[in-house]
């Protein structure tokens, strides 16, 4: 019997059966053992090499990298080009994320290497990862999803985990891509905040946002508006206030002007993140309004700024260390799924969003009770 006929009979490729018959590496030990047993059951032991009959395993596969390359398993942390110019102040939060990534990487016997995607643009992402050492997968700092990035990730052939990423669809090229990701549950966070404010007697809610784009900001705005609808509260366009993208990170004049010129203000202001909540508190004080006596203000993310301002901000906690650790664990699960035979595994993990009560919300029930 020819090897290709035996392969067809066993339901595997000719290449696989060749590795078994010639005792070569390239397949799992469990598959090799199963095929050897079936070959013997079929009475075709004469096709096996002497080493197979003796029961010895294949010789170890020679290393593909030079001996000078690092043998340690490496997790790459990919940094997009706009990381150091993100005007919504990522440093407080993502320094914690990196701490979590590094801690979990070490606990999984992996090293962490940072790779800046905007440097050496003539070098492909796949080549950068190859140069980084024995990379088993990559974690990607929040960034704008593009078709170019999607194709580069697919070309690299490694498992990737993105932070706070949605999906991408290009009508012009019909390119569809949704990477594996670890995200904070913006839905849970906004529902919990709106529910809390309503229970505190607030029925006139407003929204303060930066004006910057990005999936996370869009998601939070969407789920805020959906929560208003589901809790029976009005979504008033005149209660929407933008700090504007052109303003300095610490400038709150645009918000102050809008608050000053508004015919009516909400009793509570839900903010896109803690940075916008900080700006809103400063702007309200500039126009002579007190927080929370005249208007309540809440944030999102529980960054250190929440307890550095008076009053301390009520917010939604998003643990950066937990996000970093879960990115590594999700990456490990993607690797495990590939080993189990899933050619293109996909995972999405949403982290819980917990309400943190502080001093920036007035209980209106006491005022009218």
Structure summarized in a few sentences:
By secondary structure, the protein is of the alpha/beta class. It has helices at 3-10, 14-21, 29-41, 50-54, 91-107, 125-131, 147-156, 186-199, 215-230, 253-261, 274-286, 320-339, 364-368, and strands spanning 73-79, 110-116, 134-140, 160-163, 168-170, 175-177, 181-184, 205-209, 240-242, 268-271, 296-298, 315-317, 348-351, 354-356.
Please provide a written account of the structure:
- It is a single chain.
- With 369 residues, the protein is of the alpha/beta class.
- Helix content is 39%, strand content 16%.
- The chain contains 13 helices and 14 strands.
- The protein has helices spanning 3-10, 14-21, 29-41, 50-54, 91-107, 125-131, 147-156, 186-199, 215-230, 253-261, 274-286, 320-339, 364-368, and strands at residues 73-79, 110-116, 134-140, 160-163, 168-170, 175-177, 181-184, 205-209, 240-242, 268-271, 296-298, 315-317, 348-351, 354-356.
- A six-stranded parallel sheet has the order 2-1-3-4-7-13, sandwiched between helices.
- α1 (3-10) packs across α2 and α8 (186-199) packs parallel to α9.
- The longest helix has 20 residues, at 320-339.
- The protein is elongated, with a radius of gyration of 28 Å.
- The relative contact order is 0.12.
